[in-house]
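Worked problem 6 (solution included).
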Amino acid sequence: VQLVESGGGSVQAGGSLRLSCAASGSTFSSPCMGWFRQAPGKEREGVATINSRTITTYTSSVKGRFTISRDNADSTLYLQMNNLKPEDSGMYFCAAADKWSCFKQTDIGYWGQGTQVTVSS
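Solution. The predicted structure is:
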């Protein structure tokens, strides 16, 4: 059971990044998968989730800018991030849960190691 993120980096405000999460083992069959982020000194927060019925949920600050998707054929979860803002900076974690909803940390059963996103103004 492993989740491996990639695609983080440094961009200027207004730029875009696409995060990927490669899932192995049984994690990609989890009903719910998502992306969380954590900025220094702040709590880890849910950013976007998607369940097996492709129902998506976004935190309000990223609605209209971020898009979560999953490719079942490749067992990969994505997060397309557009019009990035400095407040989007942080470590982004891929997560999976054996629940239909997984927007809270306590819902999560599996975590990736994280990928850093830095947005400069």
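Discussion: The mean pLDDT is 94.
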